[in-house]
Amino acid sequence: GNVISTPSIKGTILPGITRKSIIDVARSQGFEVEERLVSVDELVEADEVFCTGTAVVVSPVGSVTYHGKKYVILISEDSLYLVH
């Protein structure tokens, strides 16, 4: 869908410049951005997952390991193009 969910900055998430830029660009491109608690179940069911940070800028997530189980998340060619 056209919804991007991100944890709010009320927890352990820092209010970084890269994060803010991605949220601003996503909204300008017509995406709805939800700042809320995101569960592991949502991560493994998502169409795509990415992380932002100062060192890596934007990086696709290929898998999530939770309680000893590895969940693979498919990475589209479009995602890789945006990262490079």
TrEMBL record:
The keyword Transferase applies. It comes from Trifolium medium. Keywords: Aminotransferase, Pyridoxal phosphate, Transferase. GO terms for cellular component: chloroplast. PANTHER family: AMINO ACID AMINOTRANSFERASE (PTHR42825), BRANCHED-CHAIN-AMINO-ACID AMINOTRANSFERASE 3, CHLOROPLASTIC-RELATED (PTHR42825:SF2). It comes from the Eukaryota. GO terms for biological process: branched-chain amino acid metabolic process. GO terms for molecular function: branched-chain-amino-acid transaminase activity. Belongs to the class-IV pyridoxal-phosphate-dependent aminotransferase family. Its cofactor is pyridoxal 5'-phosphate. InterPro entries: Aminotrans_IV, Aminotransferase-like, B_amino_transII, BCAT-like_C. This is Branched-chain-amino-acid aminotransferase 5 chloroplastic-like.
